[in-house]
C-alpha cells in the first residue's frame, strides 16, 4: 500500500471499522512509515478525546438543539465561502445534520459490542495499544480487549484471552491485532486458538499475506518465513522494456498444527483445504494451501509448560 492508500483508511481504522485484510496491510505499512504512523496516532487520540467527553443524559430537546446549532454554524460558514453562488441554506443544514448524526451513531455503536476478548490470565509483562487513545498500557487480568487493539507479549510472558466460547493463548514474544470479534491478525510469535468444534462460533486467524485459518477445535499457530520473488519491468518511450533481476522478499505466512477438531485454510483465489487432528497446514507463495501429517505429534506442550 502507498501512503495515500493508507491515509484514506486511517479514519476507518481509528473507528474500528476496518476489515481484517486491509487492517493487516495498513498495520504492515505503519511499521515502516513514520509519517503515516504519526497520523494514525493523531486519529486515535482524537477519537479517544471524543469518547472521554462527559456523558450527557439522553434528551431529544438537547440533541435537537445541538444539531441545530452545528447546522447553523455550518450554514453560516458555507454562505461565506459561497458568496458568488446561489445560497441554499437548507442544503448546508441537511449536510451538517447528516454528518453529526453519522458521527454520533458511529461512536455509540463502538461500545460494549466492540469488545472481542477479556484477559483471563497473564504471567509476565504484556502491553496493549488502545485504538481509541493510541497509547500503550500494561495488560492486567479482567481487562477488555476491543476491536482494533494491538496486544504484544514480552519475554517470559503468556496470556489467556477469552471471548464467549473461544480462547486465545499467546506465548512470549507474540503480537496480534484484533480485526473483529473472533478475528485476529497474527504477525509474530506463537498462539493456541481454541474454539467449539461445532456451532456458530469459530476463530479466524489471518497473516499479512491475507491467508486465513478458521479454527474449530484446538489449533496451534505459528508463522514461517517464505521467500517471495518480486519481478517487474522498466519501460521508456522509444526503448525496449528492461527486465531486471527479480528481487526476493522474505514474508511470514501462517502454519496451523491441529491438536483436535479442524483448521480450514483459505488461500488466494478461494483455494481451501482442511487439516484434521495430527495434521499441519501451511501456505506457499501466492496463497496456495497445503496439508501434511505432523512430523512431531506433540502440539501445544508449551501451554502446560508455563
Labels describing this entry:
306 residues, alpha+beta, Jelly Rolls, 2 domains, 16-stranded mixed beta sheet, 30% helix, 36% strand
Distance between the termini: 39 Å
- Radius of gyration, whole Å: 24 Å
Structural class: alpha+beta
The residue-averaged pLDDT reads 80
* Tally of strands: 16
Number of structural units classed as domains: 2
> What are the segments in which pLDDT stays under 50 over at least 5 consecutive residues?
56-60, 81-93, 103-112
Strand content is: 35-45%
Portion of residues within helices = 25-40%
- Indicate the overall shape: globular
**What is the helix tally?**
6
CATH topological fold name of the largest domain? Jelly Rolls
Q: What does the largest sheet look like?
A: 16 strands, mixed
CATH class of the largest domain: Mainly Beta
Q: What's the order of the H and E elements?
A: HHHHHEEEEEEEEEEEEEEEEH
Name the CATH architecture of the largest domain: Sandwich
Amino acid at each position: 500500500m502507498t501512503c495515500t492508500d493508507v491515509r484514506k483508511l486511517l479514519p476507518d481504522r481509528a473507528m474500528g471499522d476496518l476489515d481484517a485484510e486491509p487492517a493487516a496491510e495498513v498495520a504492515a505499512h505503519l511499521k515502516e512509515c513514520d509519517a503515516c504512523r504519526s497520523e494514525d496516532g493523531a486519529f486515535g487520540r482524537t477519537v479517544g478525546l471524543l469518547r472521554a467527553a462527559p456523558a450527557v443524559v439522553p434528551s431529544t430537546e438537547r440533541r435537537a438543539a445541538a444539531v441545530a446549532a452545528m447546522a447553523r454554524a455550518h450554514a453560516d460558514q458555507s454562505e461565506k465561502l459561497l458568496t458568488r453562488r446561489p445560497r441554499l441554506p437548507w442544503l448546508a443544514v441537511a449536510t451538517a445534520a447528516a454528518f453529526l448524526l453519522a458521527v454520533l451513531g458511529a461512536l455509540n455503536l463502538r461500545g460494549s459490542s466492540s469488545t472481542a476478548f477479556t484477559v483471563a490470565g497473564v504471567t509476565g509483562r504484556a502491553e496493549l495499544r488502545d485504538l481509541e487513545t493510541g497509547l500503550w498500557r500494561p495488560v492486567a487480568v479482567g481487562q477488555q480487549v476491543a476491536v482494533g487493539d494491538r496486544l504484544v507479549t514480552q519475554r517470559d510472558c503468556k496470556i489467556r484471552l477469552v471471548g464467549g466460547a473461544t480462547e486465545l493463548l499467546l506465548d512470549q514474544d507474540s503480537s496480534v491485532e484484533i480485526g473483529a470479534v473472533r478475528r485476529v491478525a497474527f504477525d509474530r510469535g506463537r498462539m493456541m486458538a481454541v474454539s467449539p468444534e461445532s456451532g456458530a462460533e469459530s476463530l479466524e486467524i489471518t497473516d499479512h499475506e491475507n491467508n486465513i485459518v478458521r479454527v474449530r477445535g484446538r489449533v496451534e499457530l505459528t508463522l514461517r518465513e517464505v521467500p517471495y520473488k518480486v519481478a517487474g519491468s522498466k519501460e521508456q518511450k522509444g526503448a525496449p522494456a528492461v527486465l531486471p533481476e527479480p528481487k526476493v522478499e522474505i514474508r511470514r505466512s501462517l502454519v496451523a498444527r491441529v491438536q483436535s477438531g479442524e483448521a480450514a485454510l483459505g488461500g488466494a483465489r478461494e483455494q481451501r483445504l482442511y487439516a484434521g487432528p495430527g495434521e499441519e497446514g501451511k501456505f506457499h507463495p501466492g496463497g496456495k494451501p497445503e496439508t501434511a501429517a505432523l512430523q512431531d505429534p506433540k502440539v501445544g506442550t508449551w501451554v502446560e509448560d508455563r
